[in-house]
Amino acid sequence: MKRRSGRAFSDKPVSDEMINSILEAGRWAPSCSNTQAWNFIVLKDTQLLSKAHEALSRGNAYAKAAPVMIIVAAKEDGGCSSHGLPYFMMDVGLTVENMLLQTVHLGLLGHPTVGWNEEMLKEVTGIPIAYRIVTVVFIGYEGDPEMLDERSREKEKAPRIRKDLSEIVHWNGW
Length: 174
Known about the structure:
single chain, alpha+beta, NADH Oxidase, 4-stranded antiparallel sheet, 6 helices, 4 strands
């Protein structure tokens, strides 16, 4: 319940030890037939981050303050092929959630995103064409919400809400 997708990041550096702990948590996530289809591209270098930031959508501008960007990529056929379903997507979801929970455990903020130019990120990072970028996760220490633009600040301060279990749970059938 402590996990949230905050937007206010401090520029305080995150230690390699913490990043490795987050990556290790991701590495131990379950995956279909233990295929471990995910790959993590960690960006910390300020010049490389600046180039990667150019690929972000306008709605992710807040993330430019985060000192760590982790791109999670996988081959579409990299997971198990059972039933013709894209299990690699679930596998990536599982690894990212493990990473986010470890981020919270370490006292950091983690925010998975959508909204970036995949080709541009691949060019900046050298990710092979055969891989898809499934998500980009920003990690850092929590910063001052007052530094955000008005729209992001409103989202940051809004209460977290979830549907009631009665809306989403169906016992013994729909």
